[in-house]
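Researcher: I'd like a candidate sequence for this fold, 296 residues long. If you have to choose between options at a position, lean toward the conservative one.
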């Protein structure tokens, strides 16, 4: 017996590395005519490495002290930045102390109690307030961001203690995937990221994306998707993180990066890229469209 076209297309998408959850999900994918992509873990490899450790000059911590506290606070987190910080500490042979009262705020960072001290690690723009130490940390973060790094601030008991720089590579196939998606949809792809504008511009320039929104919280990603849909487009949102989950659910079609992607993103999406290659995304769009053309 021959398979119905939609089922055949789901099987075929699977062979191309995309798991589509249902025939309806495939139809939603076929109807999309604008693409929104997350940066960290989606356009980038999502295996960032720790590149810089900068304790504040005149502060109480040296490089290893700063990194050890940050790694302890990050250890329970599933965020790719957290993995880079923990990995960086291990590479220096630093002990990673247990963390208590861990809390993660998607798009902002993490907080935990380590050796009786409250440690926060996250977005400089969101964690650093007023004052001399905050200004010094923000200055240092700016220097790192200028080089395309993702800078994260470290606060100990509410006081800025230093900044870490994390470097992430674009996926080798990112530019090709973006240009195929632009051609398929006839619309410029959108980059939606919680990262800083400079790191966002770096990724955009490397992939040919011109429509960039940076510094977004999870709800801001939803708003960006909604505004594209209100302008008459059906959006295919591609993302990997907990911070992408609401936008994946809100979009016409949500596609999660399966490789190192978070469980919440996978649950919120209509489809998952299981081969961990971005080029599978335009391939799946083409397949979905051809299958739908056969049944309607
Ligand atoms: P993206 O949208 O590019 O995938 P996220 O929204 O996940 O990025 O993160 C946005 C920003 O929030 C990061 O650049 C970082 O400053 C901060 N952040 C989020 N989670 C963490 C974490 N676990 N550790 C440090 N910083 C974090
Ligand atoms: Mg991400």
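Model: Candidate sequence:
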């Amino acid at each position: 017996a021959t398979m119905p076209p939609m089922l055949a297309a789901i099987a075929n998408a699977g062979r191309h590395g995309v798991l589509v959850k249902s025939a309806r999900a495939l139809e939603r994918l076929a109807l999309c005519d604008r693409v929104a992509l997350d940066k960290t873990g989606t356009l980038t490899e999502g295996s960032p490495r720790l590149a810089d450790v900068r304790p504040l000059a005149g502060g109480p911590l040296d490089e290893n002290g700063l990194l050890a506290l940050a790694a302890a606070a990050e250890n329970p987190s599933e965020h790719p930045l957290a993995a880079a910080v923990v990995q960086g500490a291990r590479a220096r042979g630093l002990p990673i102390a247990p963390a208590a009262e861990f809390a993660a705020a998607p798009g902002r960072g993490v907080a935990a109690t380590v050796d009786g001290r409250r440690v926060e690690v996250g977005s400089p723009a969101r964690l650093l307030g007023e004052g001399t130490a905050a200004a010094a940390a923000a200055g240092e973060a700016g220097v790192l961001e200028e080089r395309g790094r993702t800078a994260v601030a470290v606060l100990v008991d509410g006081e800025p203690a230093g900044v870490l720089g994390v470097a992430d590579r674009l996926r080798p196939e990112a530019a090709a995937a973006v240009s195929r998606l632009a051609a398929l949809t006839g619309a410029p792809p959108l980059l939606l990221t919680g990262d800083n504008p400079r790191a966002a511009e770096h990724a955009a320039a490397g992939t040919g994306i011109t429509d960039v929104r940076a510094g977004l919280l999870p709800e801001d990603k939803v708003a960006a998707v909604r505004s594209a849909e209100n302008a008459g487009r059906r959006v295919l949102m591609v993302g990997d993180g907990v911070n992408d989950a609401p936008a994946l659910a809100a979009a016409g079609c949500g596609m999660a990066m399966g490789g190192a992607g978070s469980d919440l993103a996978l649950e919120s999406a209509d489809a998952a890229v299981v081969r961990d290659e971005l080029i599978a995304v335009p391939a799946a769009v083409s397949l979905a469209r051809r299958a739908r053309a056969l049944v309607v």
